[in-house]
Structures are given as structure tokens and as C-alpha cells.
């Protein structure tokens, strides 16, 4: 038997293959959008992918389950409550998949969603591992607020939080302490609020250290679970529905993206529709020195997908601009990870642009912060732990497109986050929306010298 884990660092997502080496058969669990790593794993091990299990319809990424089934003939397994649109077999309690000496069976564990399951792996009759999806993480459990008004089953966060309490205690706590825990996400995911960086754990370790498995009342559990959850990115409901339908072929979709000619001057930028946002992925310094009109500086770093899907709405077309072709290709792939590849009107290399942003005199700002309107675009939980500027206005980046008009414009505006990436996006968005009526500055990495 062999268990293979893959990590998508941008989305803090883990996917898995369970290989029966004696039968040369593979079952995948929660695969990412690009099917190629799983197909290569099967080829390397001279094995056949015979099944793909989805622990629930994911909100934060698009799965390749349908494409994998179409390319390999694998059976798709989901809980019956998902009411999936693609051909599948219901994988409810009492059902099982057996390959060689391996048995995989589901535990119905509503809480993160009303249709969530965890998958127990038995080898030679003994529980060896549990694939917990978004139910149990290392150090935390899944958030319960993503299915209010989303999907075929729409349940209040309070009810799901209560269900999570019982799922954890009735279904997962009884598992042996040496059972390895393989979650669908790690630190940095927005599917929970306190995930640890580890890629796996054991039930024994989680029983000792994970707050959500401790001996507390249901009321106290629900209160703690609902408190300070991160914002919900705009693309989450879109991905739930797309995963219930099954996404189209990854390679066909990214191959259909239009790559335009390099923009070297103002005239060459005339081909762009001025009403469509340009998502400029270059670093903040390059953006401030020259960018195109109607641009947002979503830096192509570790959380590109999250901020793209938080600022750009599902179905909203956008341009993608970078300073090199290699990065463009990688970021089209990353846009596809959340189902946004079809929204890219054109991707192009940007060499010269004429719009600029003023650079902040940090020493002047330090000495006279009262002369500026300070906007904090961090998440609620970050601000509740520590407010960096006492009189700052707090609007999380994911809410800024809807709430920017709340910001007073009688003083220059300074935008900050925790490290500079979110403030680059927020300040560029504000500069465009305010159309020069008020100066907007990005505090950037200098925020680390405060507080």
C-alpha cells in the first residue's frame, strides 16, 4: 500500500492517492484542477485510477474529478446529499471501496457542509488513516458558514456548527489514536481559521491538542467556532456549484485563453476595453512606477488565487498583465484552479505604462499619522488581535470594492495590511475608484516597522 500526498501551496490544499501495489489500482481523494500529476503518478506506478472520491463540493478550489473520470474510466464517489450532476455512485455510510487489502469507507460528517464525508482507510482489517476533507484539520476544524444560500442544500451556520460538534465526537473521536489524519487543507486556507502548518497528524495527537476535540459543551463549541471566521471570497459559491456540475477539461480551457501582443506604449494599449479591469501581477514597486488605467495590482505571489477570486467577481472578465510570458502562463493555470480561466479576456506582457502612484514618505507619515486617513485591509481576526494604528478604518480587502465609498476623502489615504501584498491591491483599487480626487498611498512592507 502507498499513500501519496500533493500540496497546492497557493490554496493550501492537499490531495491524495491511495495505491494498492498488489492490484495496481488507485483511488484519488479531493484532486486539484490540473489532472496531470495524478495521471503521471498512475503511469509511474503502472497502475490504473479506478475511483475518485470527493469529500464534499469544494468552495475554495475546482476539482478535476469529472475530467479524471472521463480520461480514465474511474468511478466518481460522493455523498448522496450532494445531488451531483455528473455520473457518480453514492458514497454513504455502509458503502465501501475495496482494492487489494485496502478498504475505504465513508463517515458522514456534516458540519463544514451538510454533505461532507470523511474517508477511513483500513489495511488488512485495521484503521490506518482517515482523510478528513474540510471536517477536521490539524489544530482546527472546518468553518460552518459557507453553505448559507449556496448549493442544493442551504443550511445556517449555527446548525452546521452544531452538526460539526457531533460529527467530530460521534464519528472521528472513536477512531484509534494511531490513525493518521490527512486533511484537505493546511495553514493559510480560508476553510478554517487556526490551521497548523503540518501536513498530517494522528488522531491521538489531535485529541490532545486540537481545541475542537476537547471536552466542552455544545454551546461553547458553537460560540468558539462561529467567532472570528475569515471573510468569504466572492468565488466560493461559484466553485461549490461548479464542483457539483464537474469542471471542463483543464488543458482545453487554458489553451483557449488569448495571449495578446506585448504592450510597449500608449498606442498599443488602445486595443483594451477601458471598462474591464486589468489585473496587474507585477510587484508593487513596478506597478507604482507605471501601470495601465483601470488596473488592480494583485501581486502574483502565494495568495494570488484568493485575492483574484475575492476582488474579481465570478463571471466578470478581466485582463491579465505581467512583465514576462512565463509568469503569465503560470498565473493562467492558477486562475484555472478557482475556475476563472474563462474570464481572462486577454493575457499580455506589459513593458511600458504611463499611470503612476505616489510613493509614501514613511518618515513623514510616522511623524504625522493624524494627517492621513489610514485604512487597514486585514481580516477581522487579525485586527481583533492587534490594531496597528488606533484611528484606522478597517475594511477587509475582500469587501473593499463594495465599501470603498465609506472612506473619508478629506485627507490623503494610506493603506496597510500585514506585509504589503494586500495593501498593493487595495491602494491600486482605491486610486482608480477615487479617480485622482484624493492621493492614495501604499504603506507596503514598511508596515512591519510600526507597532
UniProtKB/TrEMBL annotation:
A single Pfam family it belongs to is Lactamase_B
Q: Where is the Rhodanese domain?
A: 272-363, 368-446
GO biological process assignments: glutathione metabolic process; hydrogen sulfide metabolic process
Q: Which UniProt keywords apply?
A: Metal-binding, Transferase
Q: Which GO terms describe its molecular function?
A: metal ion binding; sulfur dioxygenase activity; transferase activity
Matches recorded under SMART domains:
Lactamase_B, RHOD
InterPro entries xrefs: Metallo-B-lactamas, Mito_Persulfide_Diox, POD-like_MBL-fold, Rhodanese-like_dom, Rhodanese-like_dom_sf, RibonucZ/Hydroxyglut_hydro
SUPFAM superfamilies hit by this protein = Metallo-hydrolase/oxidoreductase (SSF56281), Rhodanese/Cell cycle control phosphatase (SSF52821)
Q: Which Gene3D superfamilies match?
A: Rhodanese-like domain, Ribonuclease Z/Hydroxyacylglutathione hydrolase-like
Protein name per its UniProtKB record: Sulfurtransferase
Amino acid at each position: 500500500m502507498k499513500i501519496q500526498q500533493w500540496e497546492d501551496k497557493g490554496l493550501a490544499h492537499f490531495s491524495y492517492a491511495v495505491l494498492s501495489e498488489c492490484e495496481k489500482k488507485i483511488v484519488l481523494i479531493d484532486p486539484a484542477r490540473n489532472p496531470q500529476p495524478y495521471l503521471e503518478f498512475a503511469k509511474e506506478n503502472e497502475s490504473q485510477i479506478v475511483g475518485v472520491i470527493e469529500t464534499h463540493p469544494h468552495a475554495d478550489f475546482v476539482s478535476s474529478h469529472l475530467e479524471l473520470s472521463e480520461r480514465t474510466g474511474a468511478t466518481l464517489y460522493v455523498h448522496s446529499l450532494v445531488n451531483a450532476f455528473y455520473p457518480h455512485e453514492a458514497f454513504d455510510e455502509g458503502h465501501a471501496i475495496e482494492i487489494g487489502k485496502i478498504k475505504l469507507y465513508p463517515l458522514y460528517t456534516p458540519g463544514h457542509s451538510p454533505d461532507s464525508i470523511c474517508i477511513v482507510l483500513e489495511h488488512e482489517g485495521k484503521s490506518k488513516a482517515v482523510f478528513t476533507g474540510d471536517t477536521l484539520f490539524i489544530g482546527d476544524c472546518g468553518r460552518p458558514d459557507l453553505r448559507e444560500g449556496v448549493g442544493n442544500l442551504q443550511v445556517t451556520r449555527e446548525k452546521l456548527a452544531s452538526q460539526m460538534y457531533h460529527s467530530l465526537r460521534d464519528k472521528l473521536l472513536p477512531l484509534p489514536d494511531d490513525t493518521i489524519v490527512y486533511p484537505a487543507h493546511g495553514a493559510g486556507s480560508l476553510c478554517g481559521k487556526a490551521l497548523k502548518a503540518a501536513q498530517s497528524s494522528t488522531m491521538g495527537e489531535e485529541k490532545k491538542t486540537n481545541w475542537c476535540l476537547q471536552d466542552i459543551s455544545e454551546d461553547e463549541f458553537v460560540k468558539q467556532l462561529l467567532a472570528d471566521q475569515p471573510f468569504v471570497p466572492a468565488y466560493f459559491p461559484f466553485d461549490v456549484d461548479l464542483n457539483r456540475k464537474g469542471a471542463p477539461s483543464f488543458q482545453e480551457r487554458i489553451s483557449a485563453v488569448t495571449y495578446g501582443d506585448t504592450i510597449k506604449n500608449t498606442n498599443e494599449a488602445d486595443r483594451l476595453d477601458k471598462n474591464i479591469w486589468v489585473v496587474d501581477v507585477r510587484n508593487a514597486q513596478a506597478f507604482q512606477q507605471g501601470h495601465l488605467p483601470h488596473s488592480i495590482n494583485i501581486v502574483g505571489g502565494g495568495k494570488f488565487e484568493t485575492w483574484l477570486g475575492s476582488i474579481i467577481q465570478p463571471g466578470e472578465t478581466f485582463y491579465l498583465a505581467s512583465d514576462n510570458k512565463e509568469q503569465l502562463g503560470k498565473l493562467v493555470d492558477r486562475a484555472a484552479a478557482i475556475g476563472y480561466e474563462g474570464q481572462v479576456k486577454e493575457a499580455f506582457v506589459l513593458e511600458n505604462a504611463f499611470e503612476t502612484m505616489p510613493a509614501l514618505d514613511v518618515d513623514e507619515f510616522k511623524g504625522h499619522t493624524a494627517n492621513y486617513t489610514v485604512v487597514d485591509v486585514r481580516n477581522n481576526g487579525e485586527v481583533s488581535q492587534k490594531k496597528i494604528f488606533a484611528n484606522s478604518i478597517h475594511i477587509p480587502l475582500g469587501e473593499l470594492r463594495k465599501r470603498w465609498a465609506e472612506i473619508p476623502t478629506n485627507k490623503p489615504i494610506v493603506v496597510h495590511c500585514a506585509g504589503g501584498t494586500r495593501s498593493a491591491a487595495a491602494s491600486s483599487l482605491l486610486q482608480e475608484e477615487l479617480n485622482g480626487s484624493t492621493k492614495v498611498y501604499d504603506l507596503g512592507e514598511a508596515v512591519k516597522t510600526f507597532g
